[in-house]
Fold this sequence. Notes:
- About 75% of the residues lie in helices and about 5% in strands.
- The chain has about 180 residues and is mainly alpha-helical.
- Strands 1-2 form a two-stranded antiparallel sheet.
Amino acid sequence: MTGTGGCYKIRVTHPNPSVPPPLFLHATAAINGAAVLVLQIVGGRLLAPYLGSSHYVWTAQILTTLIALAIGYLLGGWLTDRRTPLAWLFWMTLTAAGYLMGIISFVERIAFASLQWSLPVGALASAMALFFVPLLLLAITAPFLLKALPIHAANVGSQVGILSAISTAGSVAGALVAGLWF
């Protein structure tokens, strides 16, 4: 606090000025959470013309998403512990977006190639081939966001809870948009 003539100004500074403000990091968590669910839902719809929309296709989408998230969270935690720059978070998000733009031209080829196997195996192979990498990249960002936030030992639980809730709220929004609008 600084005072001049009875007036006080409170100056709040982030401990590391090169780190984006928490609001930006929270928005990134919400957008990435939305992207995961949009990808899961739209991915199933992309495969439907070739593999149908049976429970096998949707199970494959869910399994691909869960496996990619689990591995991505582990890998992201490992990377952040090695002092990987925060810029990687944004490069991974952009890489996931670029990858997704590129897969549109391969959906038909990959889906038809997977028909050499039974539908359950083919649906999982297609989902993994098409959507695992971008989902993994989106999951890697979560530990980066957590590490970038100004968290102290006394409030680590509430901050992790807030970040998880914001990401999940983004997922809900993504599911609503992908399921009801697209």
